[in-house]
Write a structure and sequence with these properties.
Elements lengths: L3 H76 L10
C-alpha cells in the first residue's frame, strides 16, 4: 500500500499538469486573438482617420465654392443683372 500512494500522487500530478497545460494553451489562444483584433482595430482607426481628413478637405472646398457662388449672386443683384430665383434668397 505504501507504493500505491506515490503512484496515485504521480497520476494526480500528471492529470493536474495536463489540465494546466490546456488552460495555458487556451489563454495563449485568447491573447493571440486579442492581439489580432487590436491590430485590426488600429488599422481601421487609421483608415477612419484618413477618411475624416478627406471629408474635412471636401467640406472646406464645398464651403469655399458655395461662398464664391453666394458672393457672385450678391454681386449680380447689386448690379441689377440677376433676377432672384424663387428658391434662392
Amino acid at each position: 500500500m505504501s507504493q500505491k500512494k506515490p503512484v496515485e500522487m504521480n497520476a494526480s500530478v500528471a492529470s493536474a499538469t495536463e489540465e494546466q497545460t490546456e488552460v495555458v494553451e487556451k489563454i495563449n489562444q485568447n491573447i493571440t486573438q486579442i492581439n489580432d483584433l487590436a491590430g485590426l482595430s488600429a488599422d481601421r482607426s487609421r483608415a477612419i482617420d484618413g477618411i475624416s481628413d478627406s471629408l474635412e478637405r471636401y467640406a472646406k472646398e464645398l464651403e469655399n465654392r458655395t461662398g464664391k457662388f453666394n458672393l457672385a449672386v450678391r454681386f449680380l443683384r447689386i448690379r441689377g443683372d440677376a433676377r432672384p430665383h424663387p428658391t434662392i434668397s
